[in-house]
Amino acid sequence: MKLRIDGGRILDLVDGSLTSASLLVDDQSGLIEAIGDVSLPADRVLTLHNEVLLPGFIDVHVHLRDPGFEDKETIATGARAAAAGGFTQIACMPNTNPPLDEPGVLKYVRDQAEAAGASQVLPIAAITKSQKGGELTDFAALKEAGAVALSDDGKGVQNGALMLAALEAAAKAGLPVAIHAEDESLSGKGVLNKAAAKRLGLPEIPGAAESAMIARDILLAAETGAHLHVCHVSVESAVALVRWAKQRGVRITAEVTPHHLLLTDDIITRDDAVYKVNPPLRGERDRLACLEGFLDGTLDVVATDHAPHTQGEKEQGIAAAPFGMVGIETVFPLLYTYLVLPGLMSLRDLTLRMSTQPAQAFSLRGGVIRVGGVADITAVDLEQERVIDPAGFYSKGHNTPFAGWPATGFSSATISRGKLIHTSEGVELSE
To answer: What is the pLDDT of residues 26-64, one digit of tens each?
Structure first.
């Protein structure tokens, strides 16, 4: 089946210009066959109304909770939520039950994603068996089973000698290592950044807990030549360390979340676990440092760290509730509204950070719109403003701190490998 997309404007990732054109995609090859005018023959036609066509977004850090925690999220619900957010590829972290530490569990993830028929789900495999930080998994076998990276996300690898061995093995396997940077001897049982912790009388997670482990792993990556990917950078010193490593030629990429770009711990004035996340929301100086690092390219990509939990879990209060926020359905509208529209960055640069650069960082297909390229596309309505309403999420998780925020730039259609996997109301599809 060939699908033609009419009425959209294609973003040029070189100069940022927008050009009205039709796209012809094929769901068998999964490729873009032609870019041209409305005379292109097709089996079905998707008619847009001046939306902007962007390469499908790629999120290299999500939690799908499946297997083991399906009350929070399933691979199917997470993949559909991702499609609604304009994402065509998402990489899921291994902290499930059982964890993604052997090929059979990775096959389960891929099979469930294929059955869901929504966004492509790419498993990130565990660094250590059962994520216990004791024995390395079989990196070569996990790569053969479809792993795109390695991580013990949710827990940092505390043993430096083991991390050195992991980076050496990962370099041989050709897999990036995505680190949850947290020195637990410094973070202890902390739950909040210093100011908010003091305000609510709760234990602190100091920024040094993050930066100390990043510094260690940068030195180990330099020694081994491995690709180090730093997850959810949140603190000024961490941005500086990543910048220094890049200047020294270390093979390193880094991500930042929308909540660390837009929020600070000043918002935490009461015991509401919707604001509990790890690393925690920091102060304004750290937020500005993350924003500067994002704008100047030190922090390569946006990643949501989409972390759904049940309402009951989040109602326990900050001390007892699990860490995490959802974000896969709202990240582009939030960053377009609060970074692009005020002139802090261009639509082109935001698209690069959400599509092209994640593809490059994790050696994935996609990230561009071109003839012969993979047909991963999202159509974004840059005109219609909506208020973020968790009740309308496709995700099972509603734990977002952005509820009630006005935003512009929601996806009206998403195409993955030539297949239409999401449309919003008002989009016209004809046979």
So the answer is: 999 999 999 987 677 899 999 999 999 999 999 999 999
Is 183 noted as a catalytic residue in this protein?
no
SS3 readout for 262-302: HCCHHHCCCCCHHHCCCCCCCCHHHHHHHHHHHHCCCCCEE
Domains in the chain, please, with CATH?
Answer: 2-53+373-430 (2.30.40.10), 56-361 (3.20.20.140)
pLDDT digits (tens, 9 = 90+) for 292-332: 999 999 999 999 999 999 999 999 999 999 999 999 999 99
The two three-digit tokens of residue 199, written as one number: 């305000």
Q: Where are the alpha helices (DSSP H) in 278-362?
A: 284-295, 311-314, 331-335, 347-351, 357-361
The CA distance from 78 to 66, in Å, is 9
Tally of residues, the chain: 431
First-to-last alpha carbon distance for the chain, in angstroms, is 10
Could you say which of 6, 27, 305, 381 is catalytic? 305
> What's the whole-model pTM score?
0.97
Distance CA 340, CA 294 (A): 13
141-154 in b/e form (b: 16+ CB < 10 A) is ebbebebbbbbbbb
Any idea what DSSP says for residue 204?
B
Is-contact 64 73, C-beta < 8 A? yes
**Measured between alpha carbons, how far is 211 from 241 in angstroms, rounded to an integer?**
8
Between strands 301-302 and 419-423, the pairing is: unpaired
The tokens 């701190």 sit on which residue?
401
> Whole-angstrom Cα distance, residue 65 to residue 349?
31
